[in-house]
Amino acid sequence: MPREFARLYEVSMSDELYDEHILDHFESPYHKGHLDHPTIAHEDKNPLCGDEVHLELLVDENRRVKEAWFDGHGCAISQAAASILTHEIEGKTIDELKEFTAPHMLDLLKVRLTASRQKCGLLGFKILKTMIYTLDERKPTVSP
After folding, report:
1. Domain for residue 126, yes or no?
2. Global confidence as pTM
3. What gap in Å lies between CA 39 and CA 71, rounded to an integer?
4. Is residue 82, in this structure, part of any structural domain at all?
5. What is the torsional sign of CA 71, 75, 78, 79?
6. Which of 38, 55, 131, 138 has its CA 20 to 30 A from that of 82?
């Protein structure tokens, strides 16, 4: 198989994966909606395209995410990424989520994105990181 044809084939396979993975999460999102009593909630939007994501977490006394829900509107990438994110972070501790990186989030999407589309794919991640540090600020300190 000539190299140029192989590269075209890889691109079409990647597009097919994008269609399956991203569109599955966009059309049938995981935990889209709201929690009755979230421990923390935060939202943000991408001013360039108007995508919006609202993220809610229920965190237990051991600082473990029991439930993660999202709501919002925007492109398939931003909404599918929020769905993928909520699924990924449930069961993890806040300390584990501190180690969660933007490249890891992009890997979960299973498709390469242009720089402008990365902002869509990382919108929920950006919100999550804000929430983690907000929770840390709330953490009671122990007096000596």
Report:
1. yes
2. 0.81
3. 16
4. yes
5. positive
6. 138
Orientation angle between helical segments 76-89 and 102-109, nearest 10 degrees: 110
Note whether 124 and 85 are within 8 A (CB): yes
Residue 124: count of CB within 10 angstroms of its CB = 29
Q: Does any domain span residue 15?
A: yes
144 assigned to some structural domain: no
Domain harbouring 53, CATH code: 3.90.1010.10
Separation of alpha carbons 124 and 118, rounded Å: 11
Q: Count the domains in the chain.
A: 1
Round to whole Å and give the CA distance between 86 and 29.
10
- In 3D, which of 103, 122, 130, 101 has the Cα closest to residue 49? 122
Measured at the CA of 135, the angle between CA 59 and CA 105, to 5 degrees, comes to 75
